[in-house]
Amino acid sequence: MEQIREFIEARIMALYGIEVVVSLTRPDVQFGDYSTNVALQLSKQLGQNPRQIADEICTDLQHESITHTQVEGPGFINITLSDSILVALAESTIAMPSTGTSVVIETNNPNPFKAMHIGHAFNSVLGDTLANLLEQSGADVYRVSYHGDVGLHVGKSMYSLLKYVDGDVDKLRDIAPAERNTFMSHMYAAGSRAYKEDEQAKAEINELTKQSFTRDNALYAAVYDTVFAWSFEQIDKNVARLGNKPTAQKFLESEAELRGVEIVRNNTPHIFQESDGALIFKGSEHGSFDNAFVSNRGTGLYAARDLGLIQLKNEHYHAAKSYIVTAEEQRAYFKGVIAAAELCFPELTGVTVNISTGTVKLATGKMSSREGDVLEIDWLFDQVAEAIKARGGEPNDELIAGVLRYEFLRVRIGSDVVFDVNEAVSLQGNSGPYLQYAHARAQSILDKFDFHAGSLRTYTFEPEERSLIRKIGEFHEVVELACKELLPHHIAHYLYELAQVFNRFYENNRVIGDSRQAVRADLVNLYAQTLSRGLGLLGINAPESM
After folding, report:
1. What pLDDT is recorded for position 369?
2. Strand order of the sheet with strand 140-147?
3. What is the distance in angstroms between the CA of the first residue and the CA of the last residue of the chain?
4. Interior CA angle at 521 toward 95 and 394, to 5°?
5. What sign results for the dihedral spanned by CA atoms 149, 153, 159, 161?
6. 140 has pLDDT over 90
7. 377-537 — its CATH code?
8. Which of 239, 271, 284, 473 has the least CB density, counted as fewest CB within 10 Å?
């Protein structure tokens, strides 16, 4: 595409002496391979009718890569390329050279002492896939995670846990590994209810929250250490089941809190101000809201910890960009934290970027939680597995991950995901399994005979063959757009469209035993490779068989 764009720009310069940036789009197949509205852009500058300008440009576009041009409507120029150029586009590499730029991105942030839930799964998949796109764009990417090992949520859980063990930490050994996630969820939920409903319990929980920073009581420390270890066993297992790549480092709030408090104190009163003993940042002056970073007891709050984390990540990686993927309701909060960080560390201005997501909503009547409002991730895995069985499939971790990842990624970041488990596992609709099956189906065609890849550049295509190679040729453009905008839904949409184009081709064009077996088998092979590469960028396995 770049070659065609540059050629058109050069011809416009030769014709009119005007330097212009030509925009090329993909029209419907019947109108050609590319379209441009450059004549409409030039009409005002030249004071001429845009269709007249388009006719002049078309007459001048003589190039070995272009077989036909046509003017449509008020002055749109449609361009048809040679078959050999279509093949070159389809076979073009999408590997971008290393930029030497370091990028940090948080790819999972579940807190210990609480069960992982569907929101954690959503953000983890998004973060990991964005890391894939950043790697594809040539950056040196470091996946990290951040977890709250101190604070009120720990106090709430410890309140219930200490009552449960009743002085005997060995009681925790009776909790089977498969039940630990649900057990932790129950403990946290019970503590949260007690905190809301019972003033005495609230006072106890506040004290237990303080102890999360010191852990100087032997029983407290023993229970804490046991459940802390359980938590990360569960987090690591579940994140791996989602198909995420391992992280380079885990950051903890206890570590970040010490840094954050120090930063706030060192920047008071010129950035932070004292208010009733607390240290606050006037985020309202920076498009956010006024927020306390350090409490009147001198302990760091969430914002101080996030501030400390920004410094820690910079010390470890000196990244040009640091991405944080969070829910939409945290947008204003992070806007304030980032503004405070950039005032404290002007050299980090523009480095930290918060990417806000929508939420996962369940389609009415399709899924319901046995545990109330918190949808545990193990329960979600089970729901998907049961739905796969119900439609006659055999669930495994790669297939389940494909279901979840595709459902989360096919929606534009920032929009809500409406999750219908039956639609998500379907082999007929716009789903992860549909695309996985499409790849397996293509491989099964190639496995039916002794296939050896040839050179597609030697062929002249029939119409439906040409439509398929044209669609395959869009892949690198879509990937470049997804990487530029950090929006993986572009790839998901393209892969679904590609599979549909292939299905139409295959329904009407026999491959094995046809006189055109060689060219069509090469098309099937290139199609399968493209599907595999695209699914790989989404973190979805492309199975050889299903």
Report:
1. 39
2. 249-252, 140-147, 102-108, 321-327, 352-357
3. 36
4. 80
5. negative
6. yes
7. 1.10.730.10
8. 284
For the record, the structure tokens of 334 come out as 């992070």
pLDDT digits (tens, 9 = 90+) for 425-458: 999 889 999 999 999 999 999 998 887 777 787 7
Q: Where are the domains of the chain?
A: 2-81, 377-537
Mean pLDDT of 86-101: 81
Instruction: Fold for 2-81, please state it.
Output: Gyrase A; domain 2 (3.30.1360)
Which residues lie closer than 8 Å to 454 by C-beta, 6 or more apart?
518, 519, 522
Interval 159-183: pLDDT, tens: 999 999 999 999 999 999 989 988 9
Residue in the structure block whose two tokens are 């040679």 = 82
Task: Count the alpha carbons within 13 Å of 171 in the hemisphere toward its beta carbon.
Answer: 12
The token duo for 305 is 């910890």
Dump the DSSP string for 98-119.
P---EEEEEEE-PPTTS--BHH
Distance CA 472, CA 502 (A): 10
What's the number of CA atoms in the CB half-sphere (13 Å) around residue 156?
22
- Bridge partners for 102 per DSSP: 140
The whole-angstrom separation of Cα 201 and Cα 520 is 71
Q: Indicate yes or no: pTM above 0.85.
A: yes
Q: And the tokens for 437?
A: 């099956």
The residues near 223 (Cβ < 8 Å, ≥ 6 apart) are 158, 161, 162, 165, 169, 172
Q: Which residues of 334-364 are buried (b: 16+ CB within 10 A; e: fewer)?
A: bbbbbbbbbebbeebeebbebbbbbebebee
